[in-house]
Amino acid sequence: MDTLLEKVKANLILMHSADDALLKSYITAAVSYAESYQHIPEGFYKENPMPPTTEQAIIMERVVERIDALIPAQPKALRVCAYARVSTGKDAMLHSLSAQVSYYAIGT
Question: Per-residue b/e over 4-35, b at no fewer than 16 CB within 10 Å?
């Protein structure tokens, strides 16, 4: 019981002993519940070692696990080139050049 009390106090960051009686009653209740939940006789853990998982549940020990964020890869920028050609100086051809330049300029 005393080792559990010390672990609970360390987990709660308690340096004083003013609440030891209260904490012991909580620990006793938690151990009793664990024994009942595990379908083992009451008082079993007074004479037998407690599994680490049960002890962790009674202490309510905080477990911090770092989870690194998955940063999606940025799509690689494509380097492209456009070729526009006008073969004559007519107004229709100049409009064609203007349309081609506008089409490719939108994507930049």
Answer: bbebbbeeeeeeeeeeeeebeeebeebbeebb
How far apart CA 7 and CA 84 sit, in angstroms, is: 77
The separation between CA 37 and the C-alpha centre of its own chain, rounded to angstroms, equals 29
Residues 17 and 6: their CA atoms lie apart, in Å, by 10
What's the confidence (pLDDT) of residue 92?
67
DSSP 44-69: HHHHSPPPHHHHHHHHT---------
Query: pTM above 0.70?
Result: no
